[in-house]
Design brief:
The structure is a homodimer of 439-residue chains. The first copy, chain A, has 439 residues and is an alpha/beta fold. Helices cover 44% and strands 10% of the residues of chain A. Chain A has 20 helices and 11 strands. Chain A has a 9-stranded mixed sheet, with helices on both faces. The first copy, chain A, has a two-stranded antiparallel ribbon with strand order 10-11. In chain A, helix 12 links the parallel strand 4 and strand 5. In chain A, helix 3 packs across helix 9. The interface between A and B is large, with 69 and 70 residues.
Amino acid sequence: MTAHLSPPPDGVPASHRPTRDGDATSADGTGDIGVGPHLKDGERAARPPLAAGEDERLARVALMRAAEPGDALMGRLVALSGPVEALAQIRRGLLASEVRGDRREGWERFGRHLEGRLAGWRARLHAADPVRDLAAGERLGARLIVPGEIEWPTQLDDLHESRPLALWIEGSANLRFSCLRSLSIVGARAATAYGTHVAASFGAELSDAEWTVVSGGAYGIDGAAHRGALAGRSPTIVVLACGTDFCYPSGHQDLFAAVRDQGVVISECPPGTHPTRSRFLVRNRLIAALSRGTLVVEAALRSGAINTANHALALHRHLGAVPGPITSEASQGCHHLLRQGKAQCVSSGEEAIDLVGAIGDDLAREVRGPVVPRDSLSSEARRVLDAIPTRGAGPATIAVAAQVTLDTALSCLGNLAAAGYIRRTRQGWRVSPDGYSST
Amino acid sequence: MTAHLSPPPDGVPASHRPTRDGDATSADGTGDIGVGPHLKDGERAARPPLAAGEDERLARVALMRAAEPGDALMGRLVALSGPVEALAQIRRGLLASEVRGDRREGWERFGRHLEGRLAGWRARLHAADPVRDLAAGERLGARLIVPGEIEWPTQLDDLHESRPLALWIEGSANLRFSCLRSLSIVGARAATAYGTHVAASFGAELSDAEWTVVSGGAYGIDGAAHRGALAGRSPTIVVLACGTDFCYPSGHQDLFAAVRDQGVVISECPPGTHPTRSRFLVRNRLIAALSRGTLVVEAALRSGAINTANHALALHRHLGAVPGPITSEASQGCHHLLRQGKAQCVSSGEEAIDLVGAIGDDLAREVRGPVVPRDSLSSEARRVLDAIPTRGAGPATIAVAAQVTLDTALSCLGNLAAAGYIRRTRQGWRVSPDGYSST
C-alpha cells in the first residue's frame, strides 16, 4: 500500500523545478520560484546564487515584513508551500491551487479574506528588503534563527500555524537550551510592591535552581522577574513585541543590556518594528509557548498576563497563579484563575519549580507546620496536658478529664512540669504561657 | 422475608421492661433502668416519676458529665441502647451483650479500651448531678436541647457517633432555623489586620444577605466574623469549648452578650466546664457540622482552623479559603488548602455566599474586568487603533500595519480622533495617554 513517489526531475536545480501549481506557473510563465534572485532585479547578476538554506532564510525575512506576527493565514500558506514558494505566490498575487483547494478545518474562515490579505501582503512586500534586514540585524549584533536550525526551540511548533516565521535573537545564551528548563513569569505593569517583591524572589530562586525565567520585559512584574533571575547565574529571556533594536519600555535599556549578557532578548518582529497593542497580544503566545509553564504573579481581570495565561492553557502548558490580598485589585486576575480551577496555587519559589519540574524530580517539599515540642510527648502525657483547663486544676480533676488513673496523672504531671510544659500555681496545675495552644 | 418482631410485654411500664441483656439484668437483679429514680436514692420518693422525655433529657445530662464531648464510644453506646439504658449499663459497670457483641466496623478499635473507658465514665458519674445541672442551666438563662427536639439542628446527625449528647443554648435565636442558611468563618487567633478586616467584611456581607455566621468566639478571625455579622440583622452562632456560663476568652464578654441578643451561644459542655486543648479540637467538628460550609480566612499550617477545615471535608461540607499575601505566615494554611485542591478560592463576600448558596440561587456574579470604551468600537476601528505604534505613525503606515485600505484607515482615524482615542502630533497619529493599553 506504499504510494509510489515520482523522483524529482534529474538535473533541474531545485529552485527551477516546476511547481505542482499549473495556474501559478502559467501566470508568470517562468517557473522560477527562487526568492533570492527576485529580491532586487538589478542585483541578480552581481550576487552568486544563494544556497537553498539561505533562500529559505531570506524568504522568511521577507514574509516577516509582509505579514504581522502570528498571522495564521500566512502560517498555513508557509506550511503548505514552504516559505520560498509562499513568497513567490504572494509576489505573483496568485495562490497555488493546493492552497486555495485546501479543505482543512478553519481554512474556509481564512478563505473569505484570502484576496484582501494577499493584496495586503503584496503591498507590504514592496517595502521589504530581506538582505538589508539581515545586514541590519548583523550590524545590531542580532542573529536570525529559523525553524529546523539548531537554536530553534522546537516547543514553538505547538503553535502550529501561528508559529513565528523566524526569530531575531540578541544575547549570549542559546535560546533552545535555555528554554529546556524554563518558566514564564508574567504580571501587571502596574504591580504593587508586594507583586514586584514576589516576582523578584521567584526569579532569583528559579535562577539559582538553574531554571530560565521567560518574560516580556515590561515594567512591574516582568522587569522584577528578569532582575531577580539576573541575580542568579541562569539565563533569562525577554520576548519583545517590537524589533530587538527597539527598547520598549525605554527605561529598561540597562536591564535589557544585562539580559543580553546573561540571557537573550528575542523578537519575531523585523528590526525597527514599533510595538502596538496587537503585537503585545500575539507576543504573549510566544512567552507561553517557549516555557514549560506560566506563572501569573499579579494581574487585573483583563490584562496581558491573563491573555498569556490563556495561551498557556491552550498550549497545554502548566499554569500557576500567586495569591495575594483579596483587597488588592492587582491580584484579582490570579484569584479568578484559581477560582476557575485553571491555575495551581503557587506560594513559594519551590512550588513554582514544582509546577514545571519533572515529575518526582523537582517536587516541592510537602508544606508542613512547625514541629512543636508536644509532638514528642507520649500519647498519655499529651492527653494529660490537653486536659489541663486554662484556669488550672488539681490532679484529680485532671485525671478525670484526661480519663486516666490518678497515678498516671500524677506521674505525667511531674514529667510535664520537669520539661517546662506546666507549672504548679495556687489554682492548681496550669499550662506554661508558651506551652499551650488552645486550638 | 420479614422478621417477626415480638411485641413488648403488655402492661409493663417502659422503664421496667426487662432488657434483652440477661447478664446486665441479673447483675443488679432489679431490671430497673430508669435514670430519674437513680439520681439520688434519697429523693426517689419525694419527686414524682419523670416522663419518658424527661428521663432521656436527664440521662443525657448525666452522660455529658460521664464522657468528654465527642466521645465516639459513648456515642455508639447511646446509639445502640438509648441514653437511659446506656446510663443504666454504665452505672451497673456492665455493658449489654448487644453492645459488647456489636461487630460493626470500627467497634473492635473501641472494644480494646472498653473496660477502661467504662471505669472512667463510672468514676465521673459519681460527681454528676443532672438535676442540679438542669437547674443551674435554667438559672443561667440556658436551655438544653436534645436530638429529636424542634430546635435540634438535624445536620448534626452527620456526626454519627460523635454527635453531641445534647446542647446548651443561650440566646434569642432559634438554633435550627439559624443554621439552615449558615456559613462557618474560622481562622487564626493571631490574625493580621488584613485577616480581621476580611473576616469582618464577610461577616457583615453574609449577615446582610440573611446568612448566619457560625464561629468559635475566639480572638482574631472568629471575633471579627461575629462582630461583622452583628452589624447586620441575621443571627450569629458562637460555639464554645467550655460551659456557656464560662466566658473564654474573657475579653469577649461584651461580644458574647451581644451575640446572645441577636443569635445564640452554644456548647456541648455542662455548665462550669473549663476549656482544654482537646475540647477545642472536638468543638471544631460542631462548627463544621452546623453550617453548610466553612470558610478559612487566615490560618497557619497547623492550626485549629485547619482542623475545622478537615472536619468540614470529612462531613462533605463546602470548604473555602481566602487567599492572602504569600509573604504572610497567617495565610499559609489557606494557600495549602487551595494548593491541595481541598478548598475553593473565595475572594469576596459574594463568592462566600456562592460557596454555600443553593445552586442557581445565590450564585456570585461572574467576575469580569471593567468594560472599556474600546470594547464598543467596530472591529475595523479597533484594528486601526491597535496598529498605531507607541511613537506615532502616518496613515499609510497604519493602514499597512492594520492590513486595511488607506481609505478605511483615514476614515477610522478621523472617527477615533473625534472620540478622543487618538490625536495628531508631529510624529503622526498617536494614541491618547488614557486610550492605550499595551497589554
